[in-house]
Design brief:
The chain has ten helices and 21 strands. The chain is of the alpha/beta class.
């Protein structure tokens, strides 16, 4: 089987940057990595595609564990539209995302079930071919705190229901990889361990848990925080809450939305200065409006959304309503906000999120044996070319 040969790139490996390096992929996986002194990894005739990257930066594909939509499509549309997930996957792939978790919203039980069914169908039929790979589902709700609903519909938020959760897991057929819940509400805290034991990463979010409840959630198996600072109680000097625990506890990986609206640039810099770098995951929290024109005709979780100059808010309350962010822009802004190098920020978009959902055996880094999910970046960190499992994504 012939493959892909990318040569003359600055290849970002886990421990160093290989200048003038080459990557050879066969069957969608990385077969060989070598430097200019090692000789070519293959003969030109042995590859379907040979590309001279001309000194561009070749980095691992971005892994986004929090995506509601993009390119005009919403994950919840998958209930009725078999093409919705494919449109989302193709849109984000053009911005360097090579794999993601399709993220649902709080909705009536039957609608949520149908959306999960739709995502699973999309994964099984491969309708996302030509775009980013759908690694599974992130259930953001419905077991949240209505007082920290953010852009979720508070009327539809409900206490943790074991039967409903079990039904969603069964429908997901192993695809549910991440669940956001408020541990202080209902029976959620007691159920964290059971979710962890099923291979689900449990995230604290849309919550106003105090620091003691967060401690208990961590002990039960919670290991993630959904969009740190947003839809949660703020840091207080007498009650550090979720934010304080998230910054101090190494057990927790934190999501950051680096769009300049959700978190102030200086706070992003603070997180990178205080938190262990391998415990930060950049996400988009992108909605259907990502990549679309400004306007007030969008919806999120059934609620009307207006977008102006790239900022999405609920039309009625003015609450931020997800984002119009893409991972390439998140990377650029994180580098600008923190003053760190590409190599220092890159794990937050690649290996860190991969590890959080148990996909780091094949995603998140350029290593022999892993999927050939590769992104070529220009000097200004603009995406020049994306490959998903060795196949080029065409714009």
């Amino acid at each position: 089987m012939k493959g892909l040969w990318i040569r003359n790139a600055n290849v970002y490996l886990p421990d160093r940057v290989l200048t003038g390096g080459s990557v050879y992929a066969v069957g969608g996986r990385i077969a060989r990595i070598c430097g200019p002194e090692d000789g070519p990894p293959a003969k030109p005739g042995d590859a379907d595609e040979v590309w001279d990257a001309e000194g561009l930066s070749l980095v691992p594909g971005f892994v986004d564990v929090h995506v509601h939509g993009g390119g005009g499509a919403d994950v919840m549309d998958a209930a009725d539209d078999d093409e919705a997930i494919g449109r989302i996957a193709r849109f984000h792939a053009l911005h360097g995302t090579t794999s993601f978790l399709a993220t649902t919203m709080t909705a009536p039980r039957n609608e949520l079930e149908r959306a999960v069914d739709g995502v699973v169908r999309a994964m099984e039929r491969g309708v996302a071919a030509g775009g980013a790979e759908v690694l599974g589902l992130h259930l953001e709700g419905p077991f949240l705190n209505p007082r920290r609903c953010g852009a979720q519909n508070p009327a539809l938020i409900r206490p943790f229901d074991r039967d409903e959760m079990e039904d969603l897991l069964a429908r997901g057929r192993g695809a549910v990889r991440l669940v956001t819940l408020a541990p202080e509400c209902g029976d959620a805290l007691r159920r964290i361990g059971a979710l962890r034991d099923r291979g689900v990463t449990v995230s604290i979010g849309h919550s106003e848990a105090d620091s003691e409840t967060v401690r208990r959630a961590i002990e039960a198996g919670a290991s993630h925080v959904t969009h740190l600072f947003n839809a949660m109680n703020p840091l207080h000097h007498r009650e550090p809450g979720i934010v304080g625990a998230a910054l101090l506890r190494d057990e927790l990986t934190v999501e950051l939305i680096c769009d300049g609206f959700h978190v102030h640039p200086d706070v992003v810099k603070l997180v990178f200065a205080v938190k262990h770098r391998d415990k930060i995951a950049l996400v988009t929290d992108a909605i259907a409006a990502a990549g679309m024109p400004d306007g007030d005709g969008y919806r999120l979780g059934g609620l009307p959304v207006a977008v102006k100059e790239g900022k999405a808010v609920l039309r009625d309350s003015g609450n931020l309503a997800g984002s119009c962010l893409t991972m390439d822009r998140a990377l650029k802004q994180a580098v600008a906000f923190t003053g760190l190098t590409l190599a220092e920020v890159l794990p937050a978009l690649t290996i860190n999120p991969s590890r959080q959902i148990g996909a780091d055996d094949r995603k998140g880094s350029i290593e022999v044996g892993k999927d050939a999910d590769l992104v070529a970046l220009g000097p200004d960190l603009t995406v020049v070319r994306t490959y998903v499992k060795g196949v080029r994504v065409d714009g």
